[in-house]
From TrEMBL:
Gene3D superfamilies: 1.20.120.1770. The lineage of its organism: Eukaryota, Fungi, Dikarya, Basidiomycota, Agaricomycotina. InterPro entries: CYB561D1/2, Cyt_b561/ferric_Rdtase_TM. This is Cytochrome b561 domain-containing protein. CDD domains: Cyt_b561_FRRS1_like. One of its GO terms (cellular component) is membrane. It is a multi-pass membrane protein.
Length: 211
């Protein structure tokens, strides 16, 4: 198969756009949905899950598929033989694991790792893995447009790309931390749900599993 530079550039742009939007826009928005909504309703889990799976998921999967496609266009470059490709594979696997862990952690109850917060180990792991994905995603995108793009496409990205990345890497952490201002309200709501469970309210048991 002959190499088509125009096709490679086209597919590389699609991959970069999909993967960037999926990992550093849509997934962080899903994190914020969970962080804020849980302070106002015990039924926050489904909006969070639907967003991360049905909205972010197809974009991330398509971005990864295009990564495989452009790697196959230049077989000599290999599939997962440099930091960007290895990190991309790791992020994709971490995302799939996070989906599975999210389902498990919100559908089961277990021993409380932090008794005062009433959090099970699997839920703590779900939060930590989400934060790890967040950090690695922003590193991956920056490495992609500063190193990978210049190396394989041959032209620098517009300055607006870095400005957008910088804005997102500041805005999302700030919004996430600010969300903890509602932690007392969230804990109060969860305590109320636990009290209802103690009194034998079956509907509240479902709400508690989502807390």
């Amino acid at each position: 198969m002959s190499f088509d530079a125009n096709s490679y550039d086209h597919d590389a742009r699609i991959h970069a756009t999909l993967s960037s939007v999926g990992f550093i826009v849509l997934l962080p928005v899903g994190m914020l949905i969970a962080r804020y909504a849980r302070a106002f309703t015990p039924r926050w889990f489904w909006p969070h899950a639907v967003w991360q799976f049905l909205i972010a998921g197809p974009v991330i999967i398509a971005g990864f598929a295009y990564a495989v496609i452009i790697a196959k266009q230049v077989p000599a470059l290999g599939q997962f033989n440099d930091p960007h490709k290895k990190a991309g594979l790791a992020l994709f696997i971490m995302y799939l694991c996070q989906l599975f862990l999210g389902i498990v952690s919100h559908s089961t109850r277990g021993p409380r790792l932090f008794f005062f917060l009433h959090r099970s180990p699997q839920r703590v792991l779900h939060i930590l893995l989400g934060l790890a994905i967040f950090g690695l995603s922003f590193w991956q995108v920056r490495y992609g447009y500063t190193v990978q793009w210049v190396t394989y496409v041959g032209t620098p990205v517009p300055p607006s790309v870095h400005k957008a990345w910088l804005a997102l890497v500041i805005i999302f952490p700030v919004l996430y931390v600010l969300g903890y201002a509602f932690l007392p309200k969230q804990l109060s709501q969860e305590a109320a749900s636990r009290n209802k469970v103690t009194n034998g309210n079956g509907d509240s048991m479902k709400e508690l599993n989502q807390a």
